[in-house]
Design a protein that fits this description.
The protein is elongated and about 65 Å long. A hairpin with a 2-residue loop joins β9 (90-96) and β10 (99-106). It is mainly beta. The protein is 0% helix and 48% strand. The chain has two domains: 1-48 and 56-73, SH3 type barrels (Roll), CATH 2.30.30.30; 78-108, no CATH class. The protein has strands at 10-13, 22-29, 32-35, 40-45, 55-60, 63-64, 68-70, 81-84, 90-96, 99-106. The strands form three sheets. Strands 6-3-2-1-7 form a five-stranded antiparallel sheet, with no helix packed on it.
Length: 108
Amino acid sequence: MSKWIKRDDKVFVRSGNDKGRIGKVLARNKDRIVVQGVNVRKKHMKKSDQKSGGEIIEIERPIHISNVALCSKEDRPVRVKVKLKENGVKDLYYLDGSKEVVIRTVGK
């Protein structure tokens, strides 16, 4: 499931300090992702020249991709399934009751 999470997807944080939060994926690097507003840490920056002083900035740090789940359009975490079509294209979808809702089409 984790390989289907891409940049700009909405995800639900399932575990950790920010459990229950929903955010947009800002970046992905193999098995870690950066989610907007999740795992925010403070970083102390030195002053760069004589005029500007030092500052404390807040940045999002990466979390493991297994700690998140894709969200539906109603901001609910969903289980994603893959269906292979006749032409070799894959559909990424989830079940809403008995209805299949397609999230996106994935290439070969």
